């Protein structure tokens, strides 16, 4: 596996296999009166049926994929957020890895149902 593929795979796994699962677990706990953002979201989700809750969790995947796409596209030089005009040089272990990060990420997200 090339360096850019390893980089994208590691980020993908962190976002979709760890973070999303942590959100689902935390937001599926019993309702309580805490005031933190997780408790507020958990209480709101508790008002939905199972299918609707699943739809919301699946939408989280879209949000994460879109957010990661902005970062990868910016590093690749194909997306230009306001205020960022420079070029990036992204290396890992001395190997330049940017240029195809966004394409690799989108392909992985599509093949692993990142966009449900």
Protein described:
- With 116 residues, the protein is mainly alpha-helical.
- It has one domain.
- The protein is built from four helices and two strands.
- A two-stranded antiparallel ribbon has the order 1-2.
- The two termini are 26 Å apart.
- The model has no long low-confidence stretch (mean pLDDT 93).
Brief summary:
This protein is mainly α. The chain is 62% helix and 3% strand.
Give descriptors for this structure:
116 residues; two-stranded antiparallel ribbon; elongated
Query: Which residue ranges are poorly predicted, with pLDDT under 50 across at least 5 consecutive positions?
Result: none
Distance between the termini: 26 Å
Task: Quickly count the helices.
Answer: 4
Indicate the mean pLDDT.
Answer: 93
Going by helix content, strand content and strand pairing, the class is mainly alpha
The biggest beta sheet, please?
2 strands, antiparallel
Topology:
Blueprint: H1 3-27, H2 37-45, H3 50-76, E1 91-92, E2 95-96, H4 101-111
Antiparallel strand pairs: 1-2
